[in-house]
Write a structure and sequence with these properties.
MoCF_Sase_C, mainly beta, MOSC domain-containing protein, pyridoxal phosphate binding, 282 residues, five-stranded antiparallel β-sheet, 3 helices, catalytic activity
């Protein structure tokens, strides 16, 4: 098996960046979910509330996070840590310490997206703070993450996307691209849903090892076109994923596996890396 895509999402719920390689850290791929948008109550805001966030492009240079949108000139946000007091912000039920970026970002978002972006600000995860991953699926271990929904890595496979798209087309629906699921690591696999039986994934020479912890329950972000922010078929692909029932013991739609790092902090992961799998005990 081989890695075919690596993606990071520096600002939670904005467009992702495809990479040829990345540093691997316990909290995820380098720069993944380092920033987040929050409302006036300091609660996270994503495409669930504001689908238009999918139209904001993100790039990283040596010195800046660059935000781009067709309606406005690009905005450069310095990578150097901003000055200002720490804020307490929330992601789901977690409270995290964060540093606010300048109000210029808030003005830029309104200029790009209109009044629907009024009241938003962008914050950066305060790395001296640790946000723990839920312990229930860690087999006694520990892990942490930045502003992801809950786990530092999301793994998906081409075989599972192919199976989903075959089911969609059979119903007269359009197939969906992998970016609907916003994975970090995409693996070429001919067998659909094989990842649900994997316990670990290791680079063949042992540079890093990931533990697959739990299936990823999917939300309405998967219905949003990640280029246009349109919702072509409001119930899909969630309805078809539920019908496929890939997780018989769990309710809802699932696609991909949440993962944590077991070995290889600060190593490099590359598109093309070959992987060795261990299978879960039955």
């Amino acid at each position: 098996m081989q890695i075919t895509q690596l993606n990071i999402y520096p600002v939670k719920s904005l467009k992702g960046i495809s990479l040829a390689h990345s540093a691997v850290h316990e909290h995820g791929l380098a720069w993944d979910r380092r920033w987040m948008l929050v409302d006036a109550q300091q609660r996270f805001v994503t495409q669930r509330q504001l689908p238009a966030l999918a139209t904001v492009e993100v790039a990283l240079t040596d010195e800046h996070l660059v935000l781009s949108h067709p309606n406005v000139e690009p905005l450069n946000v310095p990578l150097t840590q901003p000055e200002g007091n720490l804020r307490l912000v929330s992601v789901w039920n977690d409270h995290c310490k964060a540093l606010p970026e300048s109000e210029e970002v808030s003005r830029w978002l309104v200029a790009a997206l209109g009044e629907q972006a009024q009241g938003l600000s962008m914050v950066r995860f305060a790395t001296e703070f640790t946000r723990a991953v839920e312990e229930d699926f860690l087999d006694g271990g520990a892990a942490h993450t930045y502003f992801s929904d809950g786990y530092p890595f999301l793994i998906a496979t081409t075989g599972s996307l192919d199976a989903l798209n075959q089911a969609l087309v059979a119903k007269g629906q359009a197939p969906v691209p992998m970016n609907r699921f916003r994975p970090n690591i995409v693996i070429k696999s001919d067998e659909a849903w094989a990842e649900d039986r994997w316990a670990t994934l290791a680079e063949q020479s042992g540079a890093f090892q990931l533990a697959l912890r739990k299936p990823c329950k999917r939300c309405k972000v998967t219905t949003i076109d990640q280029h246009t922010a349109a919702v072509p078929a409001p119930a899909e692909p969630l309805k078809t994923l539920i019908e496929l029932n890939t997780q018989p013991t769990q309710k809802g739609a699932h696609f991909g596996q949440n993962a944590t790092l077991l070995e290889g902090a600060d190593s490099v992961i590359r598109v093309g890396d070959r992987l060795v799998v261990t299978i879960r005990d039955a």
